[in-house]
């Protein structure tokens, strides 16, 4: 694989977690620099912090894989007609456009694999240095690293390979487990997802053994007497994040039994709670008590400005704030005006044209004491309810209905049935799951993955209706350099057998 080889890249001196003023802005670029870091427990922690900061790049979860490029593909936004650059081509799935490849797709591939190499740099030696750690920190650092490697490969698979069902044997992406530069063979989708789950199983095992504090307590600032590293666990790939990622991965491959088991474990056993309207109204626009995993993105205000306040992206399909009977109103998405996601997460653009803009990332310190001003959600509790409901739509529709009602009541739906009727069929339940997935993860990137996995129609601009995308429109092309230099297996060619007549 042709890629830049980096050991640790810290893109910003800003803190990823609060109370971490002892971080160093380290950029080891030689084997000697790395050798120094792996001789202390703090060195390993700094390496791990560096990989988290890499995730906050605008190329990755700081924009493109959250509220940016991927959200626009799922038509969370309508591109401003006055701007016809790479963004316009992107929201029309024109992946062959050089501006789209160069601005969005190729940088996602290279940044992800560079950071995977950084994570592998930790995992390659940490087990032989476990004597450096105390109080379960070896298990927590290693467990987080395994979860991070799994998450990055899983998202690369979801983006660069065709939808899993029916394509299990399709050649997909490399699963890289070494930090050394090499040509890594592209594996079948089934082989990649198997390795994702193996890494997540290892993460769950280690984080449980390390007594991750969030297993029993939704810790915010408290250190629990174990040091700074154990604080603010929702901003680490913690135990519940690893379990939630397993739920995503199992659902992706169609294993609803295991997906349900993982989602229910988070729902029933985690200490996470629903955000209250008081907290949300006070400025907690990401519903922090519900976050399973999030990133603190130091450049979020600038990224937000470039996407929303600049008016490049407005709400698609129903992108106007007008009267309820207007075809382009928010009420086509949010059927109940009491929905907290409707009331508190959008704003008028203030320029007189009545566009509705997302204000989710205009964050202020809320009543939740660990609320961050620069938070990008990656996994949230509501998604676990939707996964569980989808998995039980046919096998246990009554329970699926109850899960959907619980979620919607936590969002301000006050009717007894919360808009989910008794006797809803499996088709009804799945339609509600789709609608709620869009509302619950708006501007977080997950709705695009939902659309691709389920193959349902994509909501488009109001005058075009719903669109059915082709497999090619759902699948990113690999960079040309990877096609040329990567270890991609050639398709097997069946030999012709001459049959005697």
Structure description:
The chain is mainly alpha-helical and 501 residues long. The chain has 17 helices and 10 strands. It has helices at residues 31-37, 41-55, 69-73, 86-91, 98-126, 137-160, 189-209, 239-252, 256-269, 277-281, 300-309, 340-344, 381-391, 397-409, 426-440, 446-454, 480-485; strands spanning 77-79, 171-174, 186-188, 291-296, 313-315, 346-348, 356-358, 375-380, 458-459, 466-467. The strands form 5 sheets. The chain has a two-stranded antiparallel sheet with strand order 1-5. The radius of gyration is 22 Å and the shape is globular. The N and C termini lie far apart (48 Å). The relative contact order is 0.13. Mean pLDDT is 82; it is low at 1-28, 81-86, 316-328, 366-370 and 493-497.
Q: From the alpha carbons, calculate the radius of gyration and give it in angstroms.
A: 22 Å
Largest sheet: 2 strands, antiparallel
Number of helices: 17
Stretches with pLDDT under 50, minimum 5 residues: 1-28, 81-86, 316-328, 366-370, 493-497
Concise summary:
By secondary structure, the protein is mainly α. 42% of the residues lie in helices and 7% in strands.
Question: What keywords describe this structure?
Answer:
single chain; mainly alpha; two-stranded antiparallel sheet; 17 helices; 10 strands; 42% helix; disordered N terminus
Which helices and strands occur, and which strands form pairs?
Elements: H1 31-37, H2 41-55, H3 69-73, E1 77-79, H4 86-91, H5 98-126, H6 137-160, E2 171-174, E3 186-188, H7 189-209, H8 239-252, H9 256-269, H10 277-281, E4 291-296, H11 300-309, E5 313-315, H12 340-344, E6 346-348, E7 356-358, E8 375-380, H13 381-391, H14 397-409, H15 426-440, H16 446-454, E9 458-459, E10 466-467, H17 480-485
Antiparallel strand pairs: 1-5, 2-3, 4-8, 6-7, 9-10
């Amino acid at each position: 694989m042709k890629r830049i080889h980096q050991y640790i890249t810290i893109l910003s001196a800003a803190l990823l977690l609060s109370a971490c003023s002892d971080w160093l802005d380290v950029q080891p670029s030689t084997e000697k620099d790395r050798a120094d870091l792996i001789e202390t427990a703090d060195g390993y922690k700094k390496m791990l912090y560096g990989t988290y900061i890499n995730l906050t790049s605008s190329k990755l979860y700081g924009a493109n894989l959250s509220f940016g490029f991927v959200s626009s593909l799922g038509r969370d936004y309508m591109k401003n007609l006055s701007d016809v650059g790479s963004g316009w081509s992107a929201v029309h799935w024109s992946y062959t456009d050089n501006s789209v490849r160069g601005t969005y797709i190729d940088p996602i591939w290279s940044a992800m694999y560079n950071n995977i190499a950084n994570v592998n740099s930790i995992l390659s030696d940490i087990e032989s240095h476990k004597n450096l750690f105390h109080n379960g920190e070896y298990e927590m650092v290693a467990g987080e690293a395994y979860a991070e490697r799994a998450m990055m490969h899983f998202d690369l698979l979801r983006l660069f390979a065709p939808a899993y069902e029916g394509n299990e044997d399709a050649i997909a992406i490399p699963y890289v487990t070494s930090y050394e530069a090499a040509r890594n063979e592209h594996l079948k989708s089934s082989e990649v997802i198997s390795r994702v789950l193996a890494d997540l199983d290892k993460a769950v095992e280690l984080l449980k053994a390390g007594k991750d504090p969030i297993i029993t307590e939704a810790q915010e600032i408290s250190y629990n007497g174990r040091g700074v590293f154990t604080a603010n666990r929702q901003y680490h790939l913690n135990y519940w994040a690893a379990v939630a990622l397993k739920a995503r991965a199992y659902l992706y491959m169609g294993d609803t039994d295991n997906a349900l088991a993982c989602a229910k474990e988070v729902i029933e056993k985690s200490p996470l709670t629903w955000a209250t309207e008081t907290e949300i109204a006070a400025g907690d626009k990401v519903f922090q008590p519900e976050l399973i995993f999030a990133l603190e993105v130091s450049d979020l205000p600038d990224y937000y400005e470039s996407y929303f306040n600049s008016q490049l992206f407005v709400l698609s399909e129903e992108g106007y704030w007008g009267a309820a009977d207007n075809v382009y109103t928010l009420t086509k998405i949010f059927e109940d005006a009491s929905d907290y996601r409707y009331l508190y997460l959008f704003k008028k653009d203030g320029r007189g044209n009545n566009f509705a803009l997302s204000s989710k990332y205009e964050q202020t310190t809320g009543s939740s004491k660990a609320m961050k001003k620069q938070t990008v959600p990656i996994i949230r509790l509501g998604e676990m309810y939707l996964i569980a409901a989808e998995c039980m739509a046919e096998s246990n529709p009554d329970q699926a209905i109850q899960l959907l009602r619980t979620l919607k009541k936590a969002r301000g739906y006050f009717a007894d049935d919360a808009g989910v009727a008794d006797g809803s069929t499996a088709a009804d339940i799945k339609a509600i799951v789709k609608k709620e997935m869009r509302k619950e993860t708006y501007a977080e990137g997950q709705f695009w993955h939902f659309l691709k996995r389920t193959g349902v129609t994509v909501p488009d601009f109001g005058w075009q209706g719903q669109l059915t995308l082709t497999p090619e429109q759902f699948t990113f092309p690999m960079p040309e350099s990877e096609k040329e230099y990567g270890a991609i297996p050639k398709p097997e060619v069946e030999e012709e057998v001459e049959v005697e007549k």
